[in-house]
Design a protein that fits this description.
Main location: nucleus
Structural class: alpha+beta
Number of strands: 14
Strand order of the largest sheet: 1-2-3-4
Subcellular location: Chromosome; Nucleus
Strand content: 5-15%
Radius of gyration: 62 Å
GO molecular function, one term: ATP binding
Distance between the termini: 135 Å
Order of helices and strands: HHEEEEHHHHHHEHEHHEHEEEHEHHEEEH
Family: Belongs to the SMC family. SMC5 subfamily.
GO biological process, one term: double-strand break repair via homologous recombination
Shape: flat
């Protein structure tokens, strides 16, 4: 707005008043940047070079601060080329850190929203919590010790809470330990009682062996007496048994002599038995040889009978063949019939060859059509994937619009004229790099709007689609617009783009994308996309000349949008520029013309394949019929040939059988 400006603030409240674009914010920016503030504190740009007036290579800030005894003059030079700054204090070169120390010594805090509040940071200031506001206020109005003391106070309070919690934990622990001691007292009493019982058991265990010994000793005495009595009885019995013992000894000696005789007789019997067994084995061997000879004789008799039966059968077969040969008439002339069948077979062969050739051609054509269909389906699949991505983006950002879109697709038969889906789905960029220009030019509300050719159709949509969703307890938020009655899609720009090439412009917005006719007509009418040029970095470098010479109202450069206005009061021209946002909705584009053409090609190929299948079925049926006829003719030819060869075969067979 201006090349140089000096401001002399007065005491108390200072108010700067001016129309939009007169440079009020430039003074605020200068205060922040001149007092070692960062561009992020202002919230307008991230580089200091962007605060220098366009067309200039550097800018100068000079701020004089009151300080006793001598004031401080801080100077900052901003260089646009390499985005650097040079600092001076009282005309002497210095560093950024020294400037920050000087401003801090004067309690100047440009990063404190309670002390320095640019208009772009008002929203951030409103979002500050009460605690953050208190801290910012302490830093702003009080000496540095206030905030330091406040921080120490918070730390002491935190430590106090920790000590209180620790004391509470210790108290709980003490109470638990007391309860545990009470429980342990009962355990100790039970332990002492158990100890007494164990001592008693030990004493009784020591007494047990004496009692057991006494019982066993008494039993031993009783058994000893019984043993002595038994010995006396045994002695008496032996004296009584002596005569019987002598008789037993004599019987044993007689038994031994008899046993020796029995052994000798058994050996003799064994030898005789062995000799008998040898004789019996020899006899069995002879019987076996006799049986084998009888078996061989029976086989010889069976072979002789079989040989005589074969001779009789052969004689009978020769007699039958002689009778057939005698009864067979002279072989008639079968050649004409054979020639006729050969001619028919030849014609059938030619016809079958033609059909095979036709089937091969049709099969090849069908395979080509199927490959082309697969290629089209694959391409449509890729296009549908892109469209699905756009629909998922719509669903994630504007769920209500997506719900209305699903309703529209199911109820298109209710509308008389064309209804276009949300613009972000219908607009297809020719180059995704240009999507940012279109998205920055068209509002987000219109990008998710449905476009209708007929107002009546739009009323039907609003009356039926939205209440259905409302009945589902959804507060539906859907935008719908109506294309102008008179089409604006073919509107011409105010001047050919060739006239603007020298300023770096390469196209109008309308030429950067494709869209259905109603959508394009609405955008030309509402946003004048046919008359908004898009330029390059060259355009930005000469923007003042472009604005003065072209009189354009909206301009896009590589990274910025310029809006040019004329003051109603002063008739002066001024412009505002904003950085372009990155594209979010239009970066994935689908060529709708290509999609429609592919769908038409797919339908044509399906019809062609259906026709080819019908022709192939007809040819295969004809081929099957010809194969049956060919088999019949060959069978007839075979029968004629067999009739001619039968006599020769019979004579040959009779000779073979005689041999």
């Amino acid at each position: 707005t201006y090349d140089i400006c000096e401001v002399y603030p007065g005491p108390n409240l200072n108010v700067i008043v001016g129309a939009n674009g007169t440079g009020k914010s430039s003074i605020v920016c200068a205060i922040c940047l001149g007092l070692a503030g960062k561009p992020s504190f202002i919230g307008r740009a991230d580089k200091v070079g962007l605060f220098v007036k366009q067309g200039c290579l550097k800018g100068l800030l000079e701020i004089e601060l009151f300080k006793s005894p001598d004031n401080i003059i801080i100077t900052r030079e901003i260089h646009v080329v390499n985005n650097t700054s040079s600092w001076f204090i009282n005309k002497k070169p210095t560093t950024l850190k020294t400037v920050e120390e000087q401003t801090a010594a004067l309690n100047i805090q440009v990063d404190n929203l309670c002390q320095f509040l640019p208009q772009d940071k008002v929203g951030e200031f409103a979002r500050l919590s009460k605690i953050e506001l208190l801290e910012a206020t302490e830093k702003s109005i009080g000496p540095p010790e206030i905030h330091q003391f406040h921080c120490e106070l918070k730390n002491f309070r935190e430590k106090e809470r920790e000590l209180e919690n620790l004391c509470k934990d210790k108290t709980n622990s003490l109470e638990k330990m007391r309860q545990r001691v009470e429980r342990y007292k009962q355990d100790v009493d039970r332990y002492h009682e158990r100890k007494r019982h164990l001592d008693l058991i030990e004493m009784l265990e020591r007494k047990r062996p004496w009692v057991e010994y006494e019982n066993v000793r008494q039993q031993h005495e009783e058994v000893k007496q019984s043993r002595d009595q038994a010995k006396e009885v045994v002695k008496n019995m032996k004296e009584m048994q002596s005569p019987v013992t002598k008789k037993i000894q004599e019987s044993e000696e007689s038994f031994k002599s008899l046993d020796m005789k029995i052994r000798d007789m058994a050996a003799e019997i064994k030898d005789i038995s062995q000799e008998c067994k040898q004789k019996q084995d020899a006899l069995e061997m002879k019987d076996k040889q006799i049986e084998e000879i009888h078996q061989a004789l029976r086989m010889k008799k069976d072979e002789e009978l079989d040989r005589r039966r074969k001779i009789r059968n052969t004689h009978k077969m020769i007699e039958d063949w002689k009778n057939e040969l005698n009864s067979m008439a002279a072989c008639e002339n079968l050649q004409p019939q054979t020639d006729a069948i050969n001619n028919q077979l030849k014609k059938l062969e030619e016809e079958r060859a033609n059909i095979d050739s036709d089937i091969s051609d049709l099969t090849t054509e069908k395979m080509n059509q199927e490959r082309e269909k697969e290629r089209i389906i694959d391409r449509l699949g890729r296009l549908n994937n892109i469209m699905n991505m756009k629909e998922e983006n719509l669903k994630g950002r504007f769920r209500d619009t997506h719900s209305a879109l699903m309703w529209l697709r199911k109820n298109k038969d209710k509308f008389k004229k064309t209804v276009c889906e949300p613009m972000m789905l219908e607009i297809n960029m020719k180059d995704n790099r240009h999507a940012k220009y279109v998205e920055n030019h068209i509002s987000a509300n219109d990008l998710r709007s449905f476009v209708f050719e007929s107002p009546e159709d739009m009323e039907i949509f609003l009356a039926e689609a939205i209440p259905i969703q409302m009945r589902d307890h959804q507060k539906l938020r859907v935008n719908a617009v109506c294309a102008p009655a008179k089409s604006c899609a073919e509107n011409l720009p105010s001047r050919p783009i060739e006239e603007l090439h020298r300023y770096g412009f390469f196209s109008y917005l309308r030429e950067l994308f494709d869209a259905p006719h109603p959508v394009m007509s609405y955008l030309c009418s509402q946003y004048h996309v046919h008359d908004v040029p898009v330029g390059t970095e060259k355009t930005r470098n000469m923007i003042e000349r472009v604005i003065q010479e072209t009189k354009l109202r909206q301009i896009y450069t590589a990274e910025e949008r310029y809006v040019v206005k004329v003051s109603v009061y002063t008739k002066l021209t001024f412009s505002t520029n904003t950085a372009l946002r990155a594209a979010q909705f239009l970066t994935s584009s689908v060529d709708t013309d290509e999609r429609r053409q592919l769908e038409k090609q797919q339908q044509d190929i399906s019809n062609t394949l259906q026709s080819l299948d019908m022709r192939l079925a007809t040819l295969l049926e004809r081929q099957k019929h010809l194969e049956l006829r060919d088999n019949e003719l060959r069978q007839q030819k075979k029968e004629l040939s067999e009739r001619g060869n039968r006599r020769r075969q019979l004579e040959s067979k009779i000779g073979v059988k005689y041999d």
